[in-house]
Specification:
Blueprint: E1 12-19, H1 22-32, H2 36-39, H3 41-45, H4 56-70, E2 82-88, E3 97-109, E4 116-126, E5 132-143
Antiparallel strand pairs: 1-3, 2-5, 3-4, 4-5
Length: 148
Amino acid sequence: MIYWEDFTVGSRIEMGRHTFTEEEIVAFAKQFDPQPFHTDPQAAKQSFFGGLIASGWHTCAVGMRLTVESHVGRSASLGSPGLDNIRWLKPVRAGDTISYSRVVLESRPSASRPDAGLTKSRWEAVNQAGELVMTMEGWGMFGRRPRA
């Protein structure tokens, strides 16, 4: 089990990678972000982006899945009070493989719950060319290690 004490400031977690396909980009967008540059490859060619791109929310959702699979699913996670900022820096296109990592920026015990602590982290998503495509900062709450 991973506890709040295990998330030290400066520590980096490589969460994994994902290759986006045209089919999943369109399916996600049709359900959650139905803008033509996400849902229609032909219409997307005439858009500002010059082709189909993944929704920024799609890149976040994949990052969340990888977060749970890589470490949060084995942690004393208590959820999150929210995000401070998200930046979509470059479009994610079909065929792009995005690698996700997380760096712990801050850590403090909870002021109201002695059995919990909070960590502020920065997620980074990088494409196969080494370009940063997304950053996100936010807080997570974790249970503290039980005393013996």
